[in-house]
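Please, structure for the following, as tokens.
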Amino acid sequence: MTEFINDNFILHNETARKLYHEYAAEMPIIDYHNHLNPEEIFEDKMYDNLTEVWLGGDHYKWRAMRANGISEKLITGDGDAYEKYLAYADTIQKAFGNPLYHWTHLELKRYFGIDEILKPDTAGEIWDKCNEKLRSAEFSAQNLLRMQNVRVLCTTDNPADSLEWHRKIRESVNDIRVLPSFRPGDALDIDKESFGAYMLRLGDVAGIKITSFEDLLEALKRRLIFFMENGCRVTDHSLECDFFTDDDPVKADAIFKKRLNGEEVSVEEAALYRGVLLKNLGMLYAEYGLSMQLHIGALRNVSDRMFEKIGADTGFDCLNDFNYAPQLGKLLNSMDREDKLPRTILYCLNPKDMPMLMAMAGNFQGNEMGIRSRVQLGSAWWFMDHMDGMKQQLETLCDGGLLSGFIGMLTDSRSFLSFPRHEYFRRILCNMVGEKVEKGEYPADMEYLGRMIEDICYNNAKEFFEF
């Protein structure tokens, strides 16, 4: 029987072990999409206990605890910190086959040096060991990042944000780059009640009164330049419903003005407006050399009861199943037709869409700038960032693109303890490559393969985003 999480965890052949230990393991981390709080990074926050740093904000863990019948008081409520932790310990013992089981024990091992299995019988001892270490300055927010050799991380930020904390981090931290990502979701969500108020806020920070679609583009351009002045190289968009019908800026302007006047817009009108705005933003990104991330297919806040009780981003979202290939093709083509398609990363939540996205990316690789894999099939995201999802994403890349050009893993996390997920991905990657070599499906050219592994782990992202 193989020991749990030993040095060769997930590495089931000799080639995989060589690739991981000699090439992947020591590569730094670029985490180009996460949701960490930059204020906590600047303040180099210390955490009171394991519950605060481990369970706070982590809806992956919350969903598992709810499935285990745990009261919301011990999940997002005002329950005692130790009781919350014990509830999680009970849950994780029962999480057979769930990636949380692997992540949990990798996190205990890599941050705290703990090899014991977390379960109710061991929970008290592990709690004491971890909390004793958390009281040391070596376990501050910044040092948790250093433990995992994080060189660059990109947070997720609203165009109206001041980026105060990013500026302060840049002035005080030399070895970790914490960069903002431009996420204009509130400008795209024309059908939300908050849209009008957001236009006032955006116009105020951009120094322009927004009364037309052209004004909106100018305001977003000004904010994008401000973000770039503060290190931004990445943009992000969550597409959760129809997002492209017709490339008609005149209609988009009329729809925008209609909404500013307080009138409702139809689903079709919202989709047209959204598509024209995405096209114009994408061309701006191409002009400035930025990358565009499209996260497609989340179905959010499904439980009205829990949304009203504890709000958004608390674990009540899921994958959607709408079909969007024609819309995506039209959106990318609208930019490519003018030779202004930016570097683009396509993510799906529904595994059925992965082959389609890979094939779609292949339509738009041509460029004279020599950008490798300019349009990428993004890493297995959210409900697919488990072992099978990562394997499917890597195999799909092999089947329809160039694995060698892939920009690697991201955490998409709100937790400072989430970075061993990069190790998890790297082990899965090395095992997959090793299996193909051992089966004679690719020659044992270790010099090339080692370089490819290093590129996927770090170098490709550094080149792609021009960090």
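The radius of gyration is 23 Å. The mean pLDDT is 97.
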